[in-house]
Amino acid sequence: MLVRKVSNLKFIVRITSEYPIALSKHLKLSPVAWPEESFQKPFSTKVSNFPEYEMPTVTWGVIQGRKEKLVSRVIVCDYLKSIGIIPDELEGLELPSTVEVMRERVEFLQKIGLTIDDINEYPLMLGCSLRKNIIPVLGYLEKIGIPRGRMGEFVKNYPQCLHASVVVELAPVIRLLRGLDVEKQDIGYVLMKYPELLGFKLEGTMSTSVAYLVSIGVNPRDIGPMVTQYPYFLGMRVGTVIKPLVEYLVSLGLPKKVLARIFEKRAYILGYDLEETVKPNVHCLMSFGIRREALASIIAQYPQIIGLPLKAKLSSQQYFFNLKLKINPDEFALVVEKMPQIVSLNQKVIIKPIEFLLGRGISSDDVAKMVVQCPQLVALQVGLMKNSYYYYKTELGRAVTELVEFPEYLTYSLESRIKPRHQRLQSKGIKCSLAWFLNCSDQRFEERLQGEYIDAESRGPTFFMGGKLELPGSEILSEEEDDSDDEILYRRTVSL
What we know:
Blueprint lengths: L18 H9 L38 H17 L16 H13 L4 H6 L8 H14 L7 H7 L8 H14 L7 H7 L11 H11 L7 H7 L8 H14 L4 H10 L8 H14 L7 H7 L8 H16 L3 H10 L8 H13 L4 H10 L8 H15 L3 H6 L8 H15 L5 H5 L3 H9 L11 E2 L5 E2 L8 H4 L2 H9 L3
Antiparallel strand pairs: 1-2
């Protein structure tokens, strides 16, 4: 032992950046030469020589007896009070023995962007050693992608990270995120959104939530993008949050495969509160005349609808449609079933296509009929509508009444569908309805052109409660083809 009790003498040990050299004089040891490459490994626990993160000149202070510790503690607490920090929560915490050490900690925390108020929100951070805790943690966080300019914000949001061990606690979480296919450059972004991830146990909530989502059909390769978009689901309990939401949506007729596709592209749906938001919104839809059997199709087309302030939006749009288009509540319900996005569409956007149709001499009753039959009309760009309508009048030469009966004409691309197919019909001298040559796939259109007669128009696919997509002639499909109906439904109804 170098340190012995000497009467009337206080032995003070000061640890400086030259600590190994200083002790070598007493221990007769050579100073340690640290290899530079050890500081340059990605995600290393070593600390770079950043000016802001320089090691302190004093890390703890004086080695004291019991009485001296009590006196020093009072002095340190008085210092904290003098700068506006309330030390009450530090009562059971070991503090530095000198004001100099505490001042250095406070100034360091202020230098990275924290204020006295931030420190008062979590004063326990003052018990963290700069050398052993704060600087290694901050250095590691910066290396994994937390910008230095936002380090103070990060620590303010999750000050508990300062107590963590880089090797034992932080690094394993980062490895887990990388194992979930979160891109290396996205790690910092994910942690800035949800810094509490650093405090989760690997075998706990994170693992179980991922395992459950994969079990219902979520592609494991999509977990990483989901975490980047909405990392909060990693902290959700399966039994009390995720599973009840999934089971409720399945009870409305949504197949798990469709839900999996929804979650892959819009992971934030998992954050909708079942009791406070989802169920009230479903009841709200039904109160506005939406049929229960149509709910699954509505959610598949527009998943966000279950998380909106729906009552206010539906009330506003229903009044607007009744006032401007003379569409009654029952007809409005049909519009929502066909195009649920209508609840969020700006009314200034809606009115422009309506004014265009009225300006073409179409009566308000006929316009209302067209909108109920094809609500997508109200979301079209007027410029595209003008081009399609001009071609309809000049090239197709058809009556406006036929357009009223088949308003979907205006939703098809003029250049990629209407013109090429019309030219094919002219070359073969075929006369037919708009629906016959437009409302079918390219393959079906070619089959129709090769036919010796014009077949009857078939109805489109319909969605039934339970999740299956029934197609005309489905009785001739094999079992393997039936199994993919849910996927066909999702691709057909959800725009991603």
